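Human:
Take a look at this sequence-structure pair and walk me through the tokens.
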Amino acid sequence: MKNKFDVISPDGFSITYDEIYKTFEEAYDAFTQWKKRYERQGYYSSTHYGRIPLDELESYCNIIKLK
């Protein structure tokens, strides 16, 4: 079985509804694209952490390996 990866937001949810990534690199690229959605407002608004500056967002997200 091949590895699969997902990206988990600071609020504990997948950043996509129906996509799983084949490699860590694909998952990281998806995170980078997802992060761009928040550039205009300048932060990600988390229900758990409040406003997260975009330059810190990566440390609040997790790329996980699925079984």
Notes: The chain has a mean pLDDT of 94. The beta strands are 4-8, 43-46, 50-53, 62-66.
